[in-house]
């Protein structure tokens, strides 16, 4: 890339960070990291949720998937959107009403046991790492394309930069990073979509006709089945997408930090509108990239298709738009990774180290130190794993994180709020069954084993046929929680009455 | 947890609430029944509507027939998912306001006054 692009890119990234820093300074009323979020309005929090959600996967991954596989890529957009109905109807308000900060804290409203806290922390850390891999693969591909350096070097540079950012500036990375980023990302998407539609005189039908002949797939491009030929595989992926959001720690955390359930509800609605518009636009980006960039060029830049959106920006708007889109994508990744590292690190420092290892006696200083070490360890692990994931589409990688969230966290959340008999053993078995079946099945799946050398981590026949195991692991998570509860027998009806009333009415006092 | 005190329902902190008694009350049972009658059918509906898309595209091909010019039915079904999401969002918010009133009524009737007596 030319020096102009690089200078523009660096300038826009720095500008984003400066705006974010300024905005966070303007609004910081208390020193408390958590309650800082409590001062946001429903609309602002909705923007922040959108910012958290519209990560590199949505932007780079889905645009690439649609560009390469047509309708099959659009499945991601639909799944990621409908997931918000699950959040709105089933989890947002009860969780907010129980008024805690992490999933482990929420489970603690019903169960005191340390092992519940430990299991929840473990799944939070695992989900954070998987989500981070996706972001790092996207960022790596972007830096590789921009600076023309090998992917490995690119990932290492990005990884180190992000670790430094989180370790030294992590606490500034509050909601405002997400808000600024969400606005910039939407602006970028709207500009590109406008330029694409302009070429067709704003006639969507003409765009469909054009794309029908533009790719090597011909008319099949507009039909489902180009990428997902296995019916159960498609349904399994869709299951992970629709149920995963309701179990994502960094999204749920946003409901814990608003003023009341009403604000939580408003923010979900705002987020649903913004995210919905965003996902409609992914279609124009994907089709645009297929028409104006071409699949050969997209695959050449990155085999997963992750560079379709930036390349389209370059084709339509020249160097400036390319630099702008690349910078926004990069800032997006930086912000999401910061949030993920923080949620992983706080699960470790607050839940595992503070409450279990030190049994609540750790000083603030010790916890801070533990959080930093944990942030460092989480980053290193994610960097190493993402070196192996270069050829995978980032939207696909995110779907694995969603699968773990849907299998390990969603069953326990729903049981805690809605099932009277649910108990401590059930909570532990629900989380662990979901978490480990998801992990084990992914490690035996076609994304890890492939008969063709270079397509996956290892050469060999996959033992488990589905690339996304949600169809098996989510029911097993629910079953694990059910069996654990039934076989252990103990139950605390009184405690459930309290949780039920608080979760449904928003009453916040203490009981007898 | 400083934000607990900001919550408007927690000014009257009562240390002797009998949650089991509230749970057993007709008023609360009615409230839960109303919520269930609203949430359950809608949730079942949107999940079926959602999974119908991958099921139909996986096992049939009739959605591939053109609907408007080169836009086939499968795309219209996909766009319908977006419309459904926005419509259900709006319906939920409208309905939730009435649930808020019922919930506040329960807190007022049973927890802040009635609950104290137990």
From TrEMBL, chain A:
Organism lineage: Bacteria, Bacillati, Bacillota, Bacilli, Bacillales
Pfam families on file: SSF (PF00474)
Family: Belongs to the sodium:solute symporter (SSF) (TC 2.A.21) family.
InterPro entries: Na/Glc_symporter_sf, Na/solute_symporter, Sodium:Solute_Symporter
GO biological process assignments: plasma membrane acetate transport
Record-level Gene Ontology MF annotations: acetate transmembrane transporter activity; symporter activity
Main location: membrane
Name of the featured protein: Cation/acetate symporter
Membrane topology: Multi-pass membrane protein
Transmembrane regions: 6-24, 74-95, 116-143, 149-168, 180-200, 232-256, 268-293, 320-349, 370-389, 395-418, 430-449, 469-487
GO cellular component annotations of the record: plasma membrane
Record keywords: Cell membrane, Membrane, Symport, Transmembrane, Transmembrane helix, Transport
Gene3D superfamilies to which the protein is assigned, alphabetical: Sodium/glucose cotransporter (1.20.1730.10)
Localization annotation: Cell membrane
TrEMBL record, chain B:
Entry keyword set: Membrane, Transmembrane, Transmembrane helix
TM stretches of this protein: 39-59, 71-93
InterPro entries, sorted: DUF485
PANTHER family noted in UniProt: INTEGRAL MEMBRANE PROTEIN-RELATED (PTHR38441), MEMBRANE PROTEIN (PTHR38441:SF1)
Name of the protein in question: Uncharacterized membrane protein, DUF485 family
Organism: Lentibacillus halodurans
Taxonomic lineage of the native organism: Bacteria, Bacillati, Bacillota, Bacilli, Bacillales
